[in-house]
Amino acid sequence: MPDAIALRDERQFFLGVERSLSGRVWRPRLAAAEEGRAIAISQVLGLGDLLARVLAGRGVTQESAPAFLDPSLRALMPDPLLLQDMDAAVDRLARAVETGEQVAVFGDYDVDGAASSALLVEFLQAAGCPPPFLHIPDRILEGYGPNVEAISELRRRGASLLVTLDCGTTSHEALAHARALGLDAIVIDHHQAPERLPEAIVVNPNRADDLSGLGHLCAAGVAFMTLVALSRELRVRDFWTGVRPEPELLAALDLVALATVADVAALHGLNRAFVTKGLAVMKGRRRVGLAALLDAARVDGPPRPMHLGFALGPRINAGGRIGDAALGARLLTLRDPIEAARIAAELDRLNGERQALERATLEEAEAEADRQLMRSNRLSCLVVAGADWHPGIVGIVASRLKDKFKIPAFVIGQKGQSCSGSGRASTGVDLGRAVRRAVEAGVIEKGGGHRAAAGVTLAPPRIDAFRVFMNDALEEEVERARASDALLVDGALTARGADADLVRALERAGPFGSGNPEPLFVFPDHRIVDAGVVGSDHVRVRLQSGDGARLDAVAFRAVGNEIGEALLRGRGDLLHVAARIGTRVYRGVERMETRIVDLARADRRLS
To answer: Is the pLDDT of residue 381 over 80?
Structure first.
């Protein structure tokens, strides 16, 4: 195991980098006062120096390290009845199962909604209920959440219980309509909730009166806990028999893991156990639909968190973005491998179309963002709009703008006299709260979401007012985020020290993602031996350390930005290279993969 190279000066700038090529300060993630914690973890638990530093940098102590390295449901999952109104939801669901009621499942059109819906549908079928009516709304024709027309149709078909997944917390009108029709409603959700809840049983850890401390769960996590409590209640009622055995809920953790990563839920506490155990389930490829999607996405080797977020998630979302919104949820419940392969191939095709649409819209949106920033370079929030921008891809484009311009961004598509859009924000900004305030102030018609993402509906004449409102509402949060924006470095490595053994050791601190960032290392004073463009916009380079060891690395989407230009023009230059290390499996062979995040001049001059 290579030793960590702990390099910093007395001012706490890593390698003295006060301004990188991307304009960021580099700081050590592990403060000087915390060095002792890393040493204690290494010595007491017998872990390598780098792994110990990574753990200590994430607040892990020698006492908590064993549980952190082996997250278990037994240790981390509380009694589901801690969630507000969970007891009422479980009682109503248990009565529906016992009497064989017709249940309607209404899910959102993203991965979390599809996975949540599949969880409930699968459980109800195992319990012998009539096949549930599964409804995933069309993004364009119906919009987000339950609507009056769909509820009326579900009731007409004979549903007596409606369960909404990953939506419904703000659907006052639609759920009041359900009650008027005699349709009971249960909401299983995680989005930020208004003070006044709709007329339904609402299970949502982000309710103001919920004290469970589970607000970091995605909807699939809440749904899983609901099914754990429901299965237990049915056991108490002597429902499960040899003819109808209790479902193996642990086998459903593959869906929970998928939704948790794809919905960018924070990977701490219970979510770490969900993803760790869910990946183990997914590795067995028992779920026909996921196995087909893994094949369609050309995932080689065991699935990893990055596959969930960047291979499976976008393909399931593609159905809801530009195709049949129900494809993803249907795929996740299929048992026919031929049909599963057909739907997986269709989702793969739709994902390709989505990428083409995204590129075209992003070009227009970036041009509009540039114009706004020329007028004012201290914006707190970008709000760009375009005629006929597809509502299925505005969220992705907003994420791209947020990453490029380093401020929250909303991308709004206008069709006729109606506009709908999505916003994305980075750490330190609560977008969902600001959007709720915009609704309350009458600036927009509808809106909601959570800290990192939100959706809005408004009339075209209100776009300028919304832009002004969001810039005012987010100014202080964005300024604080700017002031604290730093690249946090876990340690330093050389090309010779970065190998697959080190990657495997560091993976013990995973799964990595939101709330548990993937380790970042700096390769000091490495020379660029070669560089070139690969694909449409990536830059691949070969780095060489002072001892002659070489390492291949890639900077994704770097063509045209300061990182890519420095690499392509810098053959022979010495640079400090900030990167994340990992491995990928290609045709059965494991290879190193080093992903460049930032660069700084080795002579410490300001860029």
So the answer is: yes
